[in-house]
């Protein structure tokens, strides 16, 4: 918890760099990028073709391990991203799902890919499904003596082996592509979950005779051909001891890592690099962690030469790529439109979309035709109501997402172990303090899993993989108060982090200064000198001139406006205005007499905070955000102190709706004139104002004694 003003944040992504399909545990989200630098395309060469193989397996023939529920959704989403934004033609995208994704079919599809691919082509391969391991028989895995595998639909049936990393490496070695990207959303060892989440791993295959081959059959190691290692970039979404989960997101089951990848690719610029993707996936993980009550997410890792880290992930060759993925719009009667295949891009009920003319590729704020709110689903399509209803929406118009579905308005919790009489008393005390919680039955999704036994209460995350809170049960009242505070904070954090703008042109990078390799911070003791371990400093970089607003949900569920705040000195980024592409530190120093005029110290109690950094291109939008947040503060809605957090949640939802409508078309909301500029030479705004645009990013932090 932070002293007023207070805050919370995510942590920098650092750690041991893993190799693809190598190591004792999970490779939950792995990417290889074959560098294009080795191939210069001569003049007159045929244009490159973009080819993709997408494999998603939910259902397996064997009963040895659990089926998944999100793998097929993963590849459908990635197909939409590739075809609507990155220039892949439908006829060049091969999709194998469930029964079609047998070992023979997968290997045959790879062989056809090798035959069809020319040296100038670009290849994307995506696998979502179970992963596993087999003993390393050709001794090319000295670190752990295991070969990692992907698990086809018919794996573990008589005579059918997994597909090993050696086999995949042999395929890549023969692939004559200019660039190849491989995504593996699977893991190869992990802890069983207690919730409805499924770990994407299965036990090793004991049938070692199926994997014996001549020592020199494949001259590869860990997918990377031995003679071409410099042509690859590796991005992994999990360390060797972390899990790849399949769980509910946006009303459907998905692989969390593919979801984070798709969100990052959808929101990043067309020249997104491996470094950009690495950082974007981490930001999505931070948001998801807040939404799922502290569910631990893996730390994405990247390994590559400095040059390859900065190169575009997808080549930009000829034509003009779309700046965002989109859905095709078809006009219906009664002021409604149909968004074709909307389910593939998370177009669930109550999501908002901005509609643009046909052939639009830039999707700039202020240039849309109308907004559309999804009201019903129709197979893969969705139906939406248009505002204004008389907008000139033609067939072929394009819709880009403005907001995800609103977050839930209630917390769910499930008892794993508890004395029935004690359980009833605790539930009654929780409901006195925080009524927006439902205690659900076994098999139902729950944000938190609870144990109460031998005088100790333990609260687990939604998957049951880690302990969120643990304390002695002195009385039902104290347990109820502790749980109510936790539930309230999680609900408010979920509402706050949902306030992002996927269609925004504003990109924000926010990180904790001094915490590049450690996410453990400590409460500042009276008289102790300030340092990065006990007093927060944020480094923030926004892509364009913007007004910053920083909001915190603390460990007790309270909402705090951190910046701008009454303690700020007059000359310290007046009105929160910062220049684009410049990295600013807030506060500027931890020394007394700093330019900011305030500090963010960590104070008791320990716990997690979640903070949202908003950036808006116009001052009026920033003032709208601050006005609504101050209104929430005036309600006093804090965990354990109010009858319900619902008024604050409703206020946040209304704020998001107002901000969405503001950025779609010019004239929706007021655009301030040049007199709106901050009255300092340093922060003198340009006279030509951009259309209103805003975005937000989540920062998370865990504070200990």
SSE inventory with pairings:
Blueprint: E1 30-34, E2 50-56, H1 71-85, E3 93-97, H2 103-116, E4 122-128, E5 131-135, E6 146-150, E7 163-164, H3 165-173, E8 179-185, E9 198-199, E10 220-221, E11 224-225, E12 232-236, E13 245-249, E14 252-255, H4 256-267, H5 274-291, E15 301-303, H6 306-310, E16 327-331, E17 336-339, E18 352-356, E19 370-378, E20 381-387, E21 397-403, E22 411-418, H7 420-433, E23 437-439, E24 448-453, E25 456-460, E26 467-472, H8 476-497, E27 508-512, E28 520-522, E29 535-536, E30 538-542, E31 546-553, E32 559-563, E33 577-578, E34 583-586, E35 600-601, E36 607-616, H9 619-635, H10 646-664, E37 694-704
Parallel strand pairs: 2-3, 2-4, 4-8, 22-23, 22-24, 28-37
Antiparallel strand pairs: 1-8, 1-12, 5-6, 6-7, 9-13, 10-11, 12-15, 13-14, 16-17, 16-21, 17-20, 18-19, 18-21, 19-20, 24-25, 25-26, 27-30, 29-35, 30-34, 31-32, 31-33, 31-36, 36-37
